[in-house]
Each structure stands twice: as C-alpha cells, then as structure tokens.
Amino acid sequence: MAVKIRLQRHGRKGYAFYPIVVANSRAPRDGKFIERIGSYNPNTNPATVSLDFDRALYWLEVGAQPTDTARSILSHEGVLLMKHLRGGVKKGAFTAEEAQRRFDAWKAERGQVADRKRVQTAAEAEKAAKARLEAEQEKNRLKGEAVAKKKAELLAAQEAAAKAALEAEAAETAAEEAPAAE
To answer: What is the model's pTM?
Structure first.
C-alpha cells in the first residue's frame, strides 16, 4: 500500500483550509484517510500551520511520501530536517544530543529570521501609513488654498459689484440732480 502525506480541501469557495492527512495514495483527495496530523490555513496572514511534529516524523520514517505542498510545509516546520538528522544518528555520524542541538540551533535561527521579517513588515506598514497621511495632508492643504482663493475671488467680485452698484447709484443721483440745477 502506497501511503502519502497530503492535503485535503475543506471550506467554502474562495476560503479553503486544508487538513494535513496520511492516506492511501489511491483514496480520493477528500476521502478516507489513515490519520490526521495537522492543518494548514492560508487565509490568515501569515498562513497558519498546526502540525503534530512527532506523528509527521513517524510517518516519514516508516516510508510515507509527502506531496509537493505537504513537503514544503513539513520542511518549513523542520520535520524533514529532523528526519535527516536522525538518519545521521543511525549511520553513526553524530550522537542524538548533537542532532537535537543542531535542530534547536536551526529552530532558534528560524525564529530570529521570522521576528526580523515581522518587525520589517510592521515598519514598512507604519512607513506607508505615514506617507499616506502626509499625502492626504498635502492634498487637503492644496484644496484648502484653492477654496480660500476661490472665496477671495468671489468676495472681490462681490465687492466690485457692490462698488459698481454704488457708483451707478451715485451717477444716477448726480444725473437727476444735474438737470434740476439747470
């Protein structure tokens, strides 16, 4: 019986999540499986992976073949590295303690890389938000200046119209008084 470690598709259209299962390779994708060893949810940012590390390692050691996507997930979680290190212990290349030390060092370094990336992403988001705020403030300032200019022009036009009306009224009054004076 060929055994695979693969993903099953669950969820609704456009919002899938994937249980990670060990199944017979001839079984349907979403059908019968031997054991569920974890889940993968790509809908969160970053994607969420929960994995039973020991069971995944066990199945790899007894010969289960992961699919490409499952291999990627197992590699990211360190299961393939631990399988490789255990193979070195079996061959006598180093001790189990040395294998565990190497795995812990890899895990710590991976955690530091993830933390740096998280901090960098947060800094970039903050920088982008600041740039958007400054752009919006500049746009509002320019719009305020345009509105103030338009109001000033309108006020000047109203004053000119009022002045012209006063001059016309004064000229009319002077014209009425002039013929009476003759």
So the answer is: 0.68
